[in-house]
Amino acid sequence: MIRDDARLEEAKAKPIAEIAEQLHVSGLKRAGRELTGPCPECGGDDRFSINTAKGLYQCRKCGAKGDVIALVCWLRRCSLPEALTWLCGERQELSPAEIEERRRKDRLRREKADRQEARRRTQAIAEARAIWRAGLPAEDSPVRDYLALRGLTRERLPTMPRVLRYHPDLPYMAHSAEGWVEAHRGPAMLAVIQQPDGNGTAVHRTWFDLSRPRGKALILPPGGDEPLVVKKAWGSKKGAAIRLHTPAEPWDTLVIGEGIETTLTALVSGLFPGAAFWAGIDLGNIAGRMQQGKGLRYAGLPDLTDTEAFVPPPWVRELLLIEDGDSEPKMTRAKLQSGARRAMALVPGLSARVVPCPPGLDLNDVLMEDGNEPGPDL
Ligand SMILES: [Zn+2]
User: How far is the CA of 145 from the centre of ligand 1 (A)?
Assistant: First the structure.
């Protein structure tokens, strides 16, 4: 029986990144706990990822996923016993005492990994808070000019959200062959990311460059020419949000957009009076974990066993999820639907719907088109 093969536990505990390397999976880049790159089966640029903390891999395109043992079966096209032999050597008949000893060691190894993960999280939260504390008031700072380049002028947005700050000289760290290096340093908009209890556990950073179109900074990786993302969160953001506007009076409508600019655009559009406006940071955070399986990729069904996913406060009666038209529409829609359904399942009396934007435009683009564009030549 494979189930009582003592090598199962031993194999599961193997570090997935090292095993992937032994299997010649190449071109992966580290981003936090994830390694991302081309799929060893179906190619692409960044569709394949390995979560080193959870020991799992996944391809967005061909749907391959699983743990380190499944990775071996998949790439060596072999059976489970063959994968175990490849990972751990030939099966040994063990005495009960030896089996017990192996289990004890596995338990210790798992506990150690959990402790390391907890330490990493505590450290990241402390670093996020230090970045936030180093920020200056956003009002009357270059953050004002950056938002104006995105159509969010002072006339439209008279009150600067308290959750935003300005950092004049924020380092941008990027991973390279020599480890983490400073790829850029410059002005940035900071946003505090708050857990349901209001605790700030992460910071969101948008590097900007007022001399460039729409203020978007151009940051290149060390020795590369593919621009890096200029919006990044640091800390623990799961289930949290950027609370851009929360009415002083009682409120029951919550508008969630993905990014800060989109959510602020929904706020100043005047289309949703009396509502709260929170940015969900990224689609994955808005969706939470989704049900996986054949035919479920775009079904938008939340996996309700994900207890850390974002859930609106219990008094919310209407949840509106803003759909950015500029991202991949099918997956965007599925993720927003997952967020909507999770909220409806977990908050009694709440109704939720996805509010679409014209294809190819985000709400912010719509605002830029109304003729009052204050920016430089584009
Ligand atoms: Zn693939």
Answer: 42
